[in-house]
Design goal:
By secondary structure, the chain is of the alpha+beta class. It is about 30% helix and about 20% strand. It contains five helices and five strands; from the N terminus they run H-E-E-H-E-H-E-E-H-H. The longest helix has 15 residues.
Length: about 140
């Protein structure tokens, strides 16, 4: 999947901006994400940590859940921003949630270094996703 360069630039700006609002006192690893919904709207989220680590939420899921709360059920792309030298891909839980709402989604991982940017299809990052098809035995 490809998206317009202006749209990609806006997604990266939103993800970078969201990272500035991350709550990451334990990891000191702020992450921002921006989702492009199938209807063209953009929804952003940041990671929010908790002293009980299991209660933390990643930026990718925060952005997707925000979109879902607005009535979105299909995403076309997600941009993940980290202030690191190398781009960081979503964790396994986030990959599964991305797949749930965008089985054909583009995943863009970026930093302030444009040379580090990476583009993936969600199927590359999660080749055998758990799905309703799997539940019905239709893999």
């Amino acid at each position: 999947m490809t998206i317009a360069s202006a749209t990609l630039a806006e997604l990266k700006r939103c993800a970078r901006d969201a990272a500035t609002r991350a709550y990451a006192p334990y990891s000191r690893f702020p992450v921002g994400a921006a989702v492009l919904a199938a209807d063209g709207t953009i929804h952003a989220g940041a990671n929010v940590e908790n002293a009980s680590y299991g209660l933390s939420i990643c930026a990718e899921r925060a952005a997707i859940f925000h979109a879902v709360a607005q009535g979105i059920r299909q995403i076309a792309a997600i941009v993940v921003y980290t202030p690191t030298p190398a781009a960081t891909t979503p964790c396994g839980a986030c990959r599964q949630v991305i797949h749930e709402f965008g089985s054909g989604a583009l995943v863009v991982c970026c930093t302030d270094n444009e040379q580090a940017e990476r583009h993936y299809a969600i199927a590359e990052l999660l080749p055998v996703a758990f799905s309703t098809d799997a539940l019905a035995g239709r893999r």
